[in-house]
């Protein structure tokens, strides 16, 4: 039974046997993500010192090249997962193609592939606004010991075995699920450990926050426009408010705690929406459902979408169950 003051490391060990495929491999994998997250957190926290330490592209005092933080985060996560030899493949929002690991070694037994958005919302870094890392984990479907193939990555979201995010915010948190609820851990920077601070996180069934980039309003499908107007209409039972950070992880995190809905619909600039099914929408949809929320493209459950390519984008509506259902009602009635 999980208790407060528990570290993430203790929690992972304690809950390992509850996981249906338990072999320790998934625990080691989540442990590696925890480790890389701490390293990236350290670097993200220094971002404000850029004028002092040098901007991306500069050479720093030790003669090292300064990297853009999203490139840095990408390298750190890939290095950590590769060196510890616990996954057979990685796909990253920052890479054109997937990376096969140990593909020449017939004895490798690794079963998991990881899909990752190493630093989501990175345009927010320069202005000291929270950013995040999003990860998604599947069991490979091709035989163990053979090189991973595209089909190992193009699985439906409902096949995920784990997913989560790190939010580098006022506090740094790691929130994840292995399909048995959602738990949130806060980093104590003085000690360098994540502590269970938000056990069994749940989306309120409904909420008052809607999060959408209203700058794209004129481009939105009619159903979404009508829903936004519905939120804006004055009504005693609907005291809605708009909150949009522009960092998916942070917008989702707030909405899960307070109750709300996040939308990135299609528009003429983004004909399929902006967000990526595999790196952003599926992991968030898995977390949302595990927390009692809901996620769809306005019509179809996100986790049932059949992926066709690694970097595919889809419209995304995710959050408190009743609010997502309301959007779907509007989409059915008014459509595009
Ligand atoms: P990114 O992967 O290039 O960082 O883009 C994803 C981000 C999300 O975090 C955020 O919700 C969205 O883009 C904001 O987009 P916009 O600025 O179009 O509203
Ligand atoms: Mg992203």
Description:
- The protein is an alpha+beta fold and 336 residues long.
- It has two domains: 8-198, 2-Layer Sandwich (Fructose-1,6-Bisphosphatase, Chain A, domain 1); 209-334, D-Maltodextrin-Binding Protein, domain 2.
- 30% of the residues lie in helices and 20% in strands.
- The protein has an eight-stranded mixed beta sheet, sandwiched between helices. A five-stranded mixed beta sheet has the order 10-9-11-13-12, with helices on both faces.
- A hairpin with a 4-residue loop joins β6 and β7 (182-188).
- α1 runs antiparallel to α2 and α6 packs across α9.
- The longest helix is centred in the first third of the chain and has 21 residues, at 25-45.
- The model has no long low-confidence stretch (mean pLDDT 91).
- Bound molecules: 2,5-anhydro-1,6-di-O-phosphono-D-mannitol and magnesium ion (MG).
- The site of magnesium ion has 4 residues, from β3.
Jot down its keywords.
D-Maltodextrin-Binding Protein, domain 2, eight-stranded mixed β-sheet, 2 domains, binds 2,5-anhydro-1,6-di-O-phosphono-D-mannitol, alpha+beta, Fructose-1,6-Bisphosphatase, Chain A, domain 1, binds magnesium ion, 13 strands, 336 residues
What topology emerges from the helices and strands here?
Layout: H1 8-15, H2 25-45, H3 50-53, H4 69-83, E1 89-92, E2 99-100, E3 112-120, E4 131-139, H5 150-153, E5 162-168, E6 172-177, E7 182-188, E8 193-198, E9 209-211, H6 222-232, E10 241-242, H7 248-258, E11 260-264, H8 277-290, E12 294-296, E13 316-319, H9 321-334
Parallel strand pairs: 1-3, 9-10, 9-11
Antiparallel strand pairs: 1-2, 3-4, 4-5, 5-6, 6-7, 7-8, 11-13, 12-13
Helix pairs in contact: 1-2, 2-4, 6-9
The protein binds 2,5-anhydro-1,6-di-O-phosphono-D-mannitol (AHM) and magnesium ion.
